[in-house]
UniProtKB/TrEMBL annotation:
It comes from the Bacteria. It comes from Floccifex porci. Pfam families: tRNA_edit. Keywords: Aminoacyl-tRNA synthetase, Ligase. Belongs to the PRORSD1 family. This is Prolyl-tRNA synthetase associated domain-containing protein. The lineage of its organism: Bacteria, Bacillati, Bacillota, Erysipelotrichia, Erysipelotrichales. Residues 37-161 form the YbaK/aminoacyl-tRNA synthetase-associated domain. GO terms for molecular function: aminoacyl-tRNA deacylase activity; aminoacyl-tRNA ligase activity.
Length: 184
């Protein structure tokens, strides 16, 4: 894997949604690095990508309430175990579970394994609430997929919070989730 500065030189073979992410970052004047790789869908698959990008692994989990009337994108460190009961109490909402792949496609324009904060670009109706674990906010750099899981990008966390989220008209809720352990 190679670390590149900015967008791919050639857009052929790239999905339109990926190119829209680069267009957004470029229009906001955000400096970013990119690496291309085989499809990654698990934290274990991402270890080498994160080593190349020099970022801490971050899970992007797409969740919904029991009634499927509220959707959430949760960003947590890769080494944390999600306890949905704990998160449900913190936001507060009824029992949380993982949302379907169809809902992920519908609301974020991404497929399972490609969940990313950049998918909020495709949520103009604000159906998805962004939740960010406080540990993610402490990192200088943030890594994510550009809406496909065959590339990954890195840019300043501050740029994500102050520029990207503002541009896609989304806010976030900071959550403090406990470390590890089994779900109860």
């Amino acid at each position: 894997m190679i670390l590149y500065e900015g967008r791919p030189e050639v857009s052929s073979g790239r999905q339109e949604k990926e190119m829209k992410v680069y267009d957004l970052l470029d229009s906001l004047g955000i400096t970013y690095q990119r690496t291309d790789h085989k499809a990654v869908a698990t934290i274990e698959d991402c270890l080498e990508v994160d080593r190349i990008l020099e970022v801490r692994i971050c899970k992007n989990l797409f969740l919904c309430n029991r009634q499927k009337t509220a959707y959430y994108l949760l960003l947590i460190p890769g080494d944390k175990t999600l306890k949905t009961k704990e998160l449900s109490k913190r936001i507060p909402t009824s029992r949380l579970s993982f949302a379907s792949g169809e809902d992920m496609e519908r609301y974020l324009n991404v497929s399972p394994g490609s969940a990313t904060v950049m998918g909020l670009l495709f949520d103009p109706d604000h159906k998805v609430q962004l939740l960010i674990d406080e540990e993610v906010l402490k990192e200088e750099y943030f890594g994510c997929h550009p809406c496909v899981n065959t590339s990954s990008i890195r840019f300043r966390t501050e740029d994500m919070l102050q520029k990207v989220l503002k541009a896609v008209d989304h806010d976030y809720i900071t959550v403090s989730l406990s470390d590890g352990g089994e779900e109860k």
